[in-house]
Prior knowledge:
Radius of gyration: 20 Å
Strand content: 35-45%
Distance between the termini: 67 Å
Largest sheet: 7 strands, antiparallel
Number of domains: 1
Helix content: 10-25%
Number of helices: 3
Structural class: mainly beta
Shape: globular
Order of helices and strands: HEEHEHEEEEEEEE
Mean pLDDT: 87
Strand order of the largest sheet: 3-2-11-10-9-8-7
Number of strands: 11
Amino acid sequence: MRVSLLMVSLMASACAGCLHAPPNYPGAGGDNLDPRQFTNEACVDLSGRYEGKGEIVDGDPGSLRDQRTWRLDNVFPFASREQLDSLSAAARRPDGFYAPPQYGIVERKSDRTYYISFAFPNGKTASFSPSFEDKGRFVCTGLDGKIVWGGASEGGRSEFGPNSSDSIKAIYLDAQGNLILERGMQVHMNLRLLHIPVGTAKYSAVYRFRRLN
């Protein structure tokens, strides 16, 4: 027990400056976007036909090495579990893996709602209707801007102890009309004993989904 307490004391001293990074998502305060300041802003029109698998164009070393592609059907927010299950059923291959869509067609129904349909290599199709109508969660920065959202979560763990995390996403169009997804996540780590913060691990990636004519 003395050894354990000594180790905790030593690690606490070593991590005296290992505070958690501030949260990084709209509405979290500080330098983050304040949704209240953007309630009257229009949203960018993301309508178009895009490749079903995006390629990474920037990111942290781990993402550049291990997550070089991203699925188009995992870009827009799901409104329900049923929407996710429907897409998963269409994407499922006989071997149990889930193939990315060949392409997706994004149709805007209103300033903050869409209808998106996907075609998969197995010949199946699926669709769902994402919504950005919650202005307290989804921030639109203008017709030529981005749609940004995120949030915080609890319950993660590592070998050292409990973690919490926050994440942020942004989608927009580049100069060529390609769909761009930016993803970021922070994992705030703590020691198991005394819940001492030991720093924040940060992850980021940017993916480009080419527009199809």
